[in-house]
Model the fold of this input.
Amino acid sequence: MQETTEMGYNTKVEDDVVVTRLDAALNWFRKYSIWPMPMGLACCAIELMGTGASRYDISRFGMEVMRFSPRQSDVMIVAGTVTYKMALSVKRIYDQMAEPKWVIAMGACASTGGMYRSYAVLQGVDNILPVDLYVAGCPPRPEALLDALLKLQNKVQREPLLATLKKPGPALAKA
Amino acid sequence: MNALDTAKKLGDKFPEALSGPTEFRGELTLEVADPERIVEICEFAKKELGFDYLVDVSSVDNYGNDPRWTVVYLLYGIASKQYLRLVTSVSEEKSELPTVTGVWRTANWHEREIYDMMGIRFRGHPDLRRIIMWEGYPYFPLRKDFPLAGKPSEMPDVAFSKTAPLEGGPFVTSPGAKDAVEREPRVKTVET
Done:
């Protein structure tokens, strides 16, 4: 009896193999399972709900899982006016989120304080959190928020994951 | 009995404490001379005249004039469908008047808001704490001499505030000025 060994091209294996870099693959997993933390503080939260509803279908991008627990979420969408009274609670919830984490400032108020130039309103959530994306609008359309989430996907895809794996994220790096 | 008769009836009951009623655009206002008597007047208005609903309690800062504070009570009778406004003045040195929470329980939060925003205290209030700003915030932000941009304050682990960038503002219109140029919004800052 003579045994034959297949050399070179193996059709049984090669059909199911995709060759890539490890961090590109990990980033690919990450970018299609970005779970939002809906930090709804004002009227932008209504548009955020509209984004999550059936017409705009946020689950096309794997982001429909709005988690109200910071432990289970990846991107905090700050939707609305951040008052000084609320600011430290927003910061605390951000601190409770597990790395890796991102922040989207949705709308004029979260980005800059918006029309509220007053004693009560924090002038932009970037005073307390590292913001990745700002969405313009008052409030922004659901399409604008989806565009920001797609841009966030691009950002996640480009991240040098393995190089920074053991390094702390932006929140811990400052301390 | 129409609203004017009801207001007159209240005025006749307390002739030395109440003046009015004055009518402006169909709304009736009675002025209470002595804020210390507000409780018995409100009690009579509720029990005898049927003003069973306290719509709002608010306050006015007549900055630069004496007495500085005006406290406004807006009353409504659900059965009679009549409104009545009671107005009383409090000096800045005193900044205190008796609470009407014993008459209408809803006055609780209205009076807390006035205390929070204007710094007028209500004697006998069951729970006179700040309601919108945080406990320990040092200012009363709705006073006329408080700048719109705010003042910095810091309470570690509770809250903080900074001065908001106003880019030269606040921009205030002057209604009633002669021409459009005078009326349009200009920078106006109140001396602090």
In short: The helical segments of chain A are 11-14, 22-31, 44-52, 84-96, 107-112, 142-158, 170-174.
